[in-house]
Amino acid sequence: MALQFEVLRTAGSGGRRGRLALPHGVVETPVFMPVGTAASVKAVEQGVLETLGDEGSGAKIILANTYHLYLRPGHELIARLGGVHKFMGWDQPMLTDSGGFQVFSLSELRKVTPDGVEFRSHLDGSRHFFSPEHSMDVQIALGADIAMAFDECVETPASWERTKESMGLTHAWAQRSHDHFAANAHRVPWHEVLNGATQSLFGIVQGGMYADLRKESAERLVEMDFPGYAIGGLAVGEPREVTREMIARTLELLPKDKPRYVMGVGYPDEIEEYAKMGVDMMDCVLPTRAGRHGLLFAREADGSVVRMNIKRKEYAEDQGPIDAACRCMVCRRYSRAYLRHLFVAGEPLGLSLNSIHNLHFYLATMERVRAELANAAERAVL
User: Fold this and answer.
1) Does 302 qualify as catalytic in the annotation?
2) Is 283 a catalytic residue?
3) pTM
4) pLDDT tens digits, residue range 189-233?
5) Catalytic site residue from 137, 151, 283, 323
6) Count of C-beta atoms within a 10 Å radius of residue 280
7) Domains of the chain: which residue ranges?
8) Of the residues 91, 97, 145, 257, which is catalytic?
């Protein structure tokens, strides 16, 4: 068994309550996936990740970054140590991205050809080359439950012609990724520990901000018959209404019996909106990145999300928690005044506590959305 996905209920809005079974465990969907770039969710220890959310069930699937782990400590070293799960002490599901977005982000340090991408390391300037086949080899060595096809991300804004050209490259690389992964995914020793279970590979729909290109990309990827599909190239500076439109148009074209993943989004109200549209999986660095910069999320009595800058002087003597309704370990114990003090004093504990709260907020949001989707579907049936 590699991946099994079941849609349990579908609400009138299109949102789906589902269950995703992977070699390392079962994931209830829709789900938010914390990002652990270098096999670590920044400032949050794995044991804490396992306890977050109002239900206390914790994060059930997290991400790691192919590009960063390839450069340091190296995928071959991680493979020798038994794969990324064993390496980081995480025995639940994981997903690795392909490295395409990180290579794209290098801008002047990369050169794209039909064969792949030549780039310079942001660490030491050394030269490297990623082809679709090499990205698959690195991800197979890492051993996460889900790997991603190697793609090219186009800059924003980009012309229709430039986006079309980039999309063609993504499709060619997706086929090469698909074929190489199918031939090699079983060739790592720790799969024997999981009774022969193997990884699964998702394709990535591109097409920029052009609905016709998104349609073409989705149809081409569906022809390749991946076990799951991601929508990439969004949340890169376009207006939120454009993001929503591209997601909505693409969801219509993806198989209803396979998981659908939007990459790199977003604020809490955004992930809630997209989940209710029918997105099954989402990830974003925002909860921990915002926490490290003193931005915390709370919810008003009417359900709206508040963004709180804990650095502000108004919190210097505020003895209340970040969010009075929040049940996270931070809100149960620490005041806004103390968290502000930690941040202003440069204490690392502050960065950790802020990140823990934000992650809890995201996971609790998704718990509530899953319950609402199940209830909405029940009412629709009745």
Assistant:
1) no
2) yes
3) 0.96
4) 655 566 677 899 999 999 999 999 999 999 999 999 999 999 999
5) 283
6) 25
7) 4-284
8) 97
